[in-house]
Specification:
By secondary structure, the chain is mostly beta strands. Helix content is 8%, strand content 48%. Strands 11, 14, 17, 19, 20, 22, 24 and 25 form an 8-stranded mixed beta sheet that branches. Strands 2, 4, 5, 6, 9, 10 and 13 form a 7-stranded mixed beta sheet that branches.
Length: 415
């Protein structure tokens, strides 16, 4: 009210019941309304309700309402208090701001419209009636601004060596002042100064002794209760020389088998991976060999498939990984192992002349060479369910002669 009274003292506009006039003092952008004296208090206008405070997002439209009962011949004015400017008097717009307009209803409700609200519109607004003394109500227009990231003050994608310290910065603007937090884009926890955390508050994220496990995308998220929240994605890449591990350093295979050798590598920048033989020859995919790379971030899985193993394939194989920071290798030995029984399918056994074959208790004699093909297992050169007797025919004749002599001798003794 004191502020408005000061405005009162600068310039007066005489208002009558039928018209409104005014004059300006050079250099001043203020107007005042001449009061009307009313002897009876009951005849004075009354504010039906307080002016509600209004909160509006920047760029939207704002509406301030002033409701006056028993206005009669009095006039209503809207005043911007912090700039000491009268915006309207009764039906007339005084300000030169094109975004401000006035509407009214039944000589009772008076509305101040502000289009496309700017941050400079934030502040106190007064509705006054030119009584003596002046009567007024005031309301506050709060202009809120959704958060935004200040790109030129915020970190971009970063590349650091493993073991170094790294600091990422995120600056945001808005009203109220935004709250800033950090988290991984994949939602996983990460080691932050010795603790496993999912979120870090504040505009800066400092990680000491960064490791390859910190590698990934981080989100800087700014919010202040005014939608929408906003975020910026920052990639953190951690450089380190190749490291290699071998699940099985000794592999076994039998002749004719297919076998797969495997190495696991980690490196950033991404490494060049390849296989060599024990003679140092690089192995190229195709035909007998198939090199199968599988990438997963800074991890790579190297697999070498060797088809139809032969004697020449047994020996040492080397997997090698190289990048700009170094190289490493690992050796896998491929040994021959006995084939399982199921690996045999067909066996052929030649049978020589003058042999007798006993098959399931029956004798079969032949003077011709026999080639017998059958399914079965081999045990020390013997074939199950078959017995072989060489020169069995002469032995059979000798036994008959011996039996005849024994019978003749027995007859002589009896007689």
């Amino acid at each position: 009210m004191t502020l408005f009274l000061n405005v009162y003292g600068v310039l007066w506009i005489a208002l009558t019941a039928c018209s409104t006039t005014g004059r300006e003092i050079p250099g001043q952008n203020v107007v005042s309304v001449a009061p009307i004296e009313v002897p009876d208090e009951s005849m004075y206008p009354r504010f039906a309700e307080p002016i509600p405070n209004v909160t509006v997002t920047v760029g939207r439209d704002a509406l301030l309402a002033c409701v006056v009962d028993n206005l009669r011949g009095f006039k209503v004015a809207w005043v911007r208090m912090d700039t000491q400017t009268i915006l309207s008097i009764h039906h007339n717009i005084i300000t030169q701001n094109p975004r401000i307009s006035l509407s009214y209803n039944d000589h009772r409700s008076w509305y101040l419209h502000i289009k496309d609200v700017h941050e400079v519109d934030r502040g106190w607004y007064m509705c006054q009636v030119n009584t003596d003394p002046m009567r007024s109500r005031k309301g506050y227009l709060q202009v809120v601004v959704p958060p935004s990231i200040i790109d030129n003050m915020t970190s971009t994608d970063m590349v650091v060596r493993e073991g170094a310290d790294v600091t990422m910065v995120c600056r945001a603007s808005g009203y109220p002042e935004p709250y800033v937090m950090w988290r991984r884009e994949d939602g996983q926890d990460f080691n932050y100064n010795g603790e496993s955390v999912s979120v870090v508050d504040g505009e800066t994220l400092t990680i000491t002794k960064v490791s390859r496990l910190h590698m990934g995308a981080y989100l800087c998220i700014a919010s202040n209760g005014v939608p929408p929240s906003i975020s910026k994605r920052i990639m953190l890449m951690v450089q380190f020389p190749p490291m290699l591990s071998i699940p099985n350093q000794l592999e076994g295979a039998y002749l004719g088998q297919d076998v797969t050798l495997e190495c696991h590598t980690e490196a950033y920048p991404s490494s060049i991976n390849y296989w060599t033989t024990d003679r140092g020859d690089m192995i190229i995919s195709g035909g007998k060999y198939e090199a199968i790379p599988v990438d997963s971030g800074y991890n790579k899985f190297m697999m070498l498939k060797i088809r139809n193993i032969t004697k020449e394939d047994f020996g040492f194989y080397k997997c090698i990984a190289k990048n700009s920071l170094g190289e490493t290798d690992g050796i896998i030995k491929l040994d021959e192992i006995p084939a399982p029984p199921s690996a045999f399918t067909t066996t052929q056994k030649p049978i020589l002349d003058n042999q007798t074959i006993r098959k399931k208790g029956q004798l079969v004699q032949t003077n011709e060479a026999i080639s017998s093909t059958f399914q079965g297992e081999v045990f020390d050169g013997q074939i199950r369910d078959f017995d072989f007797y060489e020169n069995s025919a002469p032995t059979h004749n000798l036994n008959i002669n011996f039996m005849l002599l024994f019978c003749l001798y027995h007859i002589i003794l009896v007689s």
